[in-house]
Amino acid sequence: MNESEKTEIKLKISQEISKTKEKIADYKELNQPIAPDCAIGRVSRMDAINNKSVTEAALRQAEKKLEGLKYMQKTLGNEDFGLCQRCKQAIPVPRLLFMPQSRFCVNCSQ
Q1: What confidence tens digit (pLDDT) does each residue in 52-110 have?
Q2: pLDDT tens track for 9-29
Q3: Is 56 within the bounds of a domain?
Q4: Structural domain range at position 41
Q5: In a domain, 95, yes or no
Q6: Which of 19, 22, 109, 110 could cross-link with 104 by S-S, CB 3.0 to 4.6 Å?
Q7: 110 vs 106: CA distance, rounded Å
Q8: Cβ of 99: how many Cβ atoms within 10 Å?
């Protein structure tokens, strides 16, 4: 991996961290408890509870992504950056640009 590719990946990681932090803030806002004194119908309350479950799952996924992005940002200067943690082969640059939190190549991630 050359320096221009590393610079491009570094920029992509920074952008993804910003986007993911915004998503986490939005999910936390949407994940507020529903007040029992809120006058909504039983079906609407059940729908709100279901939506809350979906939002909680999305929040957990976004937090996991942020953790992976921060790890990749921290290891960007290492000589083994861009190598699969399992097989030690180079992770293709397009994969790192698409999923900058990727620690594994396509074959090992399955």
Answers
A1: 889 999 999 999 999 999 999 999 889 889 999 999 999 999 999 999 999 999 999 88
A2: 999 999 999 999 999 999 999
A3: yes
A4: 3-81
A5: no
A6: 109
A7: 7
A8: 19
Report the alpha-carbon distance of residue 82 to residue 34 in Å, rounded.
44
Q: Which residue has the tokens 């999923």?
A: 99
Quick one: 108 exposed, middle or buried, by C-beta within 10 A (0-12, 13-18, 19+)? middle
Judge whether 109 lies within some domain. no
Instruction: Look up residue 58 and give its DSSP letter.
Output: H
| Best CA proximity match to 95, nearest among 86, 83, 87, 80 | 83
Is the model's pTM score more than 0.70? yes
Q: Which residue has the tokens 């491009």?
A: 8
Q: Is 33 domain-assigned?
A: yes
Euclidean distance between CA atoms 83 and 105, whole angstroms:
8
Sign, Cα dihedral of 91, 24, 14, 81: negative
Of 27, 30, 16, the C-alpha closest to 59 is 27
